[in-house]
Design brief:
about 120 residues; about 30% helix; cytoplasm; Citrate lyase acyl carrier protein; CitD
Length: about 120
């Protein structure tokens, strides 16, 4: 991680993810969620899996969840991580993140419109 970066909003059914450089090894994760009692462990698992898929091994991560679905959480974590790493390439494709969402082009979330721009 090179810089602190944000993705998401504090609107209902969304999540704000802040990722930045960490002084200590590992992923330092803080979760604040309206559904933490029921889904806190699942939120942590999704965040850690998504960061592992991106190759992130050291970062400070703050998740402020307002009831986001898993696909939205993954998209927000991906966007914040790519921004924090100042990276636009992932998994063989070049992405341009917007203030909305960044996800794999083949993933869909039925009720959320994803903004994706692929560059070849």
């Amino acid at each position: 991680m090179k810089i602190d970066a944000l993705a998401g909003t504090l609107e209902s059914s969304d999540v704000m993810v802040r990722i930045g450089p960490a002084a200590q090894p590992g992923i330092q994760l803080e979760i604040d969620s309206i559904v933490k009692q029921q889904f806190g462990a699942a939120i942590e698992q999704v965040v850690r899996e998504t960061l592992a898929q991106l190759g992130v091994k050291q970062a400070n991560v703050v998740v402020d969840d307002k009831g986001a679905l898993e696909c939205v959480l993954r998209a927000r974590v991906q966007a914040a991580a790519l921004r924090a790493a100042q990276q636009t390439n992932y998994n063989g494709a070049s992405y341009e993140t917007t203030s909305q969402y960044v996800v794999h082009p083949w993933r869909q979330c039925r009720h959320v419109k994803h903004v994706i721009r692929l560059r070849r």
